[in-house]
Every structure is written in C-alpha cells, then in structure tokens.
Design brief:
By secondary structure, the protein is mainly beta. The chain has a single domain (5-498), classed as Porin. It is 8% helix and 45% strand. It contains six helices and 20 strands. It has helices at 8-13, 25-39, 63-66, 226-230, 378-381, 474-478, and strands at 73-87, 98-113, 117-129, 144-158, 166-174, 196-204, 210-218, 243-255, 258-269, 272-273, 278-279, 285-295, 301-315, 327-341, 349-357, 395-407, 410-420, 443-457, 461-472, 488-498. The strands form two sheets. The chain has an 18-stranded antiparallel beta barrel. It has a two-stranded antiparallel ribbon with strand order 10-11. The chain is globular. The chain starts with 7 loop residues before the first helix and ends with a strand.
Length: 499
C-alpha cells in the first residue's frame, strides 16, 4: 500500500487507503526483548497488493538489480518478523490471561512480461513461534508455511473494449483488493494473506471510471489441524467449488467532488474440504450489495466517506455437523467519516467516524449478524494478531482520529473509539463475549490505540510500533463468559525491509 518514496509526502497527506493493522511483569519483559529483536531484524509489509503489481518504490538493495536487471522481469521479496504481546485477555475460554507471539512472514514475487501476456507468481511463507502453551492464538490466520499464493496469467487487452479504454484479464491464483477493502482484501497486518483462484476482468476509461468483474474460489489455508499449526507444517492450500466468491464493482469519478462505488458480491459455501479432511461450514449463501461515496484527504480541504452495505441470503447459525437448518439472513453495515487536513507543517488530519454493524437478534427464524467476508480491519479497528477485539459485527462505535507526519520518514496516528453492542444478546464484535439474556447491557468499553512508523533506511526498512488499550465496559466485565482479567493492553513491534 505504500506509495513511491518520491511521492511519500502525498501518501502521508492522502491516507484514505492507509495500512491495515500483558499486564504482569513477564509480558512486559518479553515485549521488551521482542522489541529489541524485531528492531534488529529486517521485515516487510506486503509489497504486492494486486496480481502483477510490483513494489512502487526501489529499495536500496533490490533483488532485481542484483540479478542484473533481466529484461521483461519484475522481481521482489519481503521478510517480516513481528513481536506482539497482550495482557488482560478479553477472550473467554482457554485463552491465557497474557500471551505473546513472534511471527515471521516472507514473500517472493516474480513476473515476466512477454508483451500481451504477463506470467506471474508469488510465494508466501507465514510462521509463528514462542506462543504460550494452551493458547488459542495459533490458527490459519498466523500460520501458512511455503504456499504458492499467486500463479497467474495476465492478458493486457489494451483498448479492445473501446477507444480510450484499457482492460486486462487475469486468470489463475491471485490476491485482490476490492473497493474499500472492507469485504475483499489482501491482508497487510495479518500474518497470512487471502488468495483466490479464478478469473478477473478490469476495465478503465480516460475519465478514470472503472469496472471489475471476478469469479473466484477462495483458498482454504492449510494445515488447520492443531499439530500442523504448532509445528508450522507445510501443506498445500486448496480451493474448490465448495466455496465460491464472485461479483463486480463499478467506480465513477467526479460524483459530489469524489468517487462513487456500487458493487454486489455473492458467496456460495457448503461443507467440504480436502480429500483427507472435511471442513464444516455455516453453508453461507449470501448476496452483499453496497454503495460507497468518498473523497480522498488533501491538504487544505475536507474529505468524506460514506459506505452502506446490506446482506441477504441464507446461512446456518453454526458450523456444527448437527446444525442442518438454513435460516434467512438480513444484516447491514454502515460507515460514516468526515475529516479535514490542515495545510501546515506536519499536515495534520483530524477525522470523526461512526460505524454500525448488525448483531444477531436471537430470532430462531433468521440471522441478522453482519459477515465481513474476506475483508481487512487493521486500518480501521486496530491491530489483529493477538488483539483484534473489534470487527464489523454487532457493533456501534463512534470515534475520533488524529494523524500527522512530522517528517517524510515518520507518520503517526492516535485514535479513540467508544464501543457498544448493536444487539445486547449477541456476542460483541470478535471477542466471543456474550450474555444471551441481554442483562449485561450494550456498553462494551473504550479503545485507544496509536501507531508510529519510521523509515530508518528510506525505501528499504520500516519500523512500525503499535499499542492498543481496551478499557472494558459492562459487557466485557459482567457477561457470564467474560474473563476476570482486567483491562486489555497490547503492543507490537515490526520491522520492514523491502528488497
């Protein structure tokens, strides 16, 4: 997501697509050790955000240049260690009161351009170490070792769709960012990356109006057994007709001083899996239409964003084998944001925002909990990984955000959110904390987070330090399954190296 370094100032003042994302003495000590370790190691945020997209800057050390700048090739790689620690656990069940984790993500991307056809591929390698025994932190969101995440053919169709247009066709395995990234995204903060197999068509005219149509089979990451995850086992991800994701998005520029997006996505899912292991699902059959109107931040002017999403179809309440009842789905999500960027030193931007996502109303004849599909959330709701308390489900959350860039090599933000449940009888967001009677009320608490990013080696190395504090409210303290662990504090240190 990072722009060309020569346009770094524009990026820092136009952050509409900004990156996603314990209490005792032991977590603090281990966090300090982890911070020292990560600060001394090279790490990377994802260099590619779409099929065939190479990094938009040239690092001081570039693998492509080291290989002699082979004609027609794009070659790049990333390595990203991260240390994170959490105290005052908010999750119920076997989760330890405090936990820490060291994760490592590596990618290697290559593409050869023959002229009308591009041949590309990318290896992913995501591993996790040193987590607390008995922790439920290790899952396919953290571990996916040695995986061919991208392997595609890209056909450049030039103006085949009309004079003044440009269109491309991508076939194979690829990653994708669609619209606001709230429903379909290539993960930036999370250790593992969403990938899809299928076909995608992209079109753009001279006025920057765009169209994207796609039909894909989302990858099921493996291994998903406990032994394989703990051992960072290598198992080939698979895709199949058991899960299908498809749809389209139209982008129109020059609407109310900004850009208008209209889209509709379909998801068809059924129980299935690999030949050796079956996968139980909620058998979701969802249609998710939405509208988004936004104006990107720019110094000396106001910006805005409004996105409204509706979700309909059928699904089961759980993925249990015994749950064979499909119920109708009716859910929604709304995001509203207004900001202003000052045309002064540090280009500070202040923004007010409001999010509301439906929760399940416990009506046995329907499901009203919003499903964010394959979306990302770090850029909006705080770090994921060991944290990740907030997501687009059963949520009412107003907030305020301040971001600024003291220099071209440093950017900072701080954010405050109030947290309420949209439905008091459903579990709050991603916490799993629930009072089925609704007697604990709707107040979940307050979240304060901040992040500082610094380029000690411009174009090559990025250090990212983030913290989050969750002051628990009535629901997270008093619900029957809420852990009695006090408020939650989280911190992470990541270093970034592009090559």
């Amino acid at each position: 997501m990072l722009k060309n370094l020569s346009a770094r100032r524009d990026y820092l003042t136009s952050r509409k697509d900004r990156l996603a994302g314990g209490r005792g003495p032991r977590p603090r000590i281990r966090f300090a050790l982890g911070a020292l370790l990560c600060a001394g190691l090279p790490s990377v945020a994802s260099a590619q955000t779409a099929p065939g997209q190479a990094p938009r800057h040239t690092p001081y050390f570039a693998l492509y240049e080291a290989l002699g700048k082979p004609e027609g090739w794009k070659i790049s790689g990333t390595v990203r260690p991260r240390y994170e620690a959490l105290g005052g656990q908010f999750r119920p069940g076997p989760a330890p009161a405090s936990n820490d984790l060291f994760s490592l993500q590596t990618t290697l991307f290559a593409e050869y351009d023959t002229g009308p056809v591009r041949i590309g591929g990318e290896l992913f390698d995501a591993r996790a170490y040193f987590h607390r025994r008995g922790s439920n932190a290790i899952a396919t969101t953290e571990v996916n070792a040695v995986e061919l995440g991208q392997a595609y053919l890209g056909f450049d169709l030039a103006d085949a769709a009309g004079a003044g247009t440009v269109s491309t066709l991508t076939v194979g395995r690829f990653t994708q960012n669609v619209g606001s990234r709230r429903l379909i995204a290539r993960n930036q903060f999370r250790n593992t990356i969403n990938a899809f197999t299928g076909v995608a068509y992209d079109w753009q005219n001279a006025d920057k109006d765009k169209l994207r149509l796609f039909y894909t089979l989302p990858h099921t990451r493996e291994p998903f057994d406990r032994r394989g995850l703990l051992g960072n086992g290598v198992a080939w991800d698979h895709e199949g007709l058991d899960t299908q994701l498809f749809g389209g998005i139209v982008t129109k520029s020059g609407v109310f001083g900004g850009i208008l997006e209209a889209y509709g996505f379909g998801l068809l899912e059924r129980d299935g899996g690999s030949p050796l292991e079956g996968i139980q699902t909620r058998d979701r059959r969802l249609f998710t239409p939405g509208l988004r109107l936004f104006r990107a931040p720019k110094p000396g002017r106001f910006d805005h964003e409004v996105e409204a999403i509706y979700q309909t179809g059928t699904a089961r309440d759980t993925a249990a084998v015994t749950d064979v009842t499909d119920v109708p789905v009716s859910a929604y999500f709304v995001h509203v944001e207004a900001g202003y960027t000052f045309d002064t030193a540090w280009t500070p931007r202040i923004a007010l925002h409001y999010d509301q996502a439906s929760g399940d109303d416990r009506n046995p004849g329907r499901n009203t909990r919003f499903d964010t599909l394959y979306g990302a959330r770090r850029f909006e709701y705080g770090p994921t990984g060991l944290y990740g308390a907030v997501q687009r489900a059963n949520l009412i959350s107003p907030g305020i955000r301040l971001e600024f860039a003291p220099t071209a090599d440093v950017d900072v933000f701080v954010e405050y959110r109030g947290l309420w449940l949209e439905n008091p009888a459903d579990s709050f967001a991603a916490t799993g904390v629930r009072d089925r009677t609704g007697r604990s009320g709707t107040y979940a608490g307050q979240q304060i987070e901040g992040r500082v990013r610094y380029w000690p080696v411009p174009r090559s190395m990025l250090v990212d330090v983030g913290v989050a504090y969750l002051a628990k409210g009535d629901v997270l303290r008093d619900a029957p399954n809420a852990p009695r662990t006090g408020d939650t504090i989280y911190g992470s240190v990541t270093t970034t190296f592009f090559f």
